[in-house]
Amino acid sequence: MVQQVSVEKNIVYGKTETEYLTADLYRPSSSEEDLPILVLIHGGAFKTGSKEMYMEWGSMLAQEGYFVMAINYRLATPNYPTYPGILEDMEQAMNWLVFHANERKIDVEKIGLIGDSAGAYIAAFFALKYQPFSYQIRSVIGVYGVYDLVEECVNPVIERENNMFELFLGLSFDKNERAFKEASPIHYIEDAVKSPTFDTSFYLIWGGQDRVVNPKQSLRFYEKLKEANVEVKISEIDDKGHFWFNLLPGIEGGGVNNYPNNTLYPEIVSFLNQYVRIAWSGNFSKRQIHALAKMENLTITK
């Protein structure tokens, strides 16, 4: 039986120095238990895009029994770089969820992040860089993301007339390579896994024919996660490039029922159910529990 979905548009979850930040909320109309949470983060080269790109995913995932928050965040202009402020926007979204957890009947210890392109970068970076105690990010699904800014600037799949990463950081890549490295999620894996609260699994998805972001971005990120013993799943869509995961005005496809999303949807739901829905309640990390169990020769039941 398909659940009815309740939608709230343009809820204010935070603000920048110039504007309020808004989100669209999707949830099953009736639920007895606190709902696990999904935060959807749109792409758009850090300078465009909107939460409305995820309206179909929001409704579909709410029907699966999730509280879904599709967010807008600050966008870069030539006079307004948005790094690292964009991570502050994510932090405000997380704090909004914590503040409203009881009234909204949501479980902030069961949060998953989903992002495409720039949104995948934001999701991965935030999950690796921030290790809070008041909520738990259990999974990240990153679709054709950029995870190493230096590598993408040095070996782009296309020559860019305008470098989106320079706009994002407000710096030219020339002579500022260190800043671009420090803004790259791939370099935060090692520190993240040392944290006793880190408990995030990853699902990386990309198109083998991508001519916007080098497909090797996802492959290298996958390899680094595996080296650090982080749980990670991958799906490469051999015959697709960029911009097929969600809706863009005037562009055909991008719906949940369009290829390849229709083949990915059950994989995504299965991944979320495994790593978000049935995650332990409380600020526990599987990594730490397993380490303690090994030390004391204790039995793991889950």
Automatic annotation (TrEMBL):
<dbReference type="InterPro" id="IPR050300">
    <property type="entry name" value="GDXG_lipolytic_enzyme"/>
</dbReference>
<protein>
    <submittedName>
        <fullName>Triacylglycerol lipase</fullName>
    </submittedName>
</protein>
<dbReference type="InterPro" id="IPR049492">
    <property type="entry name" value="BD-FAE-like_dom"/>
</dbReference>
<keyword id="KW-0378">Hydrolase</keyword>
<dbReference type="Pfam" id="PF20434">
    <property type="entry name" value="BD-FAE"/>
</dbReference>
<dbReference type="GO" id="GO:0016787">
    <property type="term" value="F:hydrolase activity"/>
</dbReference>
<dbReference type="InterPro" id="IPR029058">
    <property type="entry name" value="AB_hydrolase_fold"/>
</dbReference>
<feature type="domain" description="BD-FAE-like">
    <location>
        <begin position="24"/>
        <end position="225"/>
    </location>
</feature>
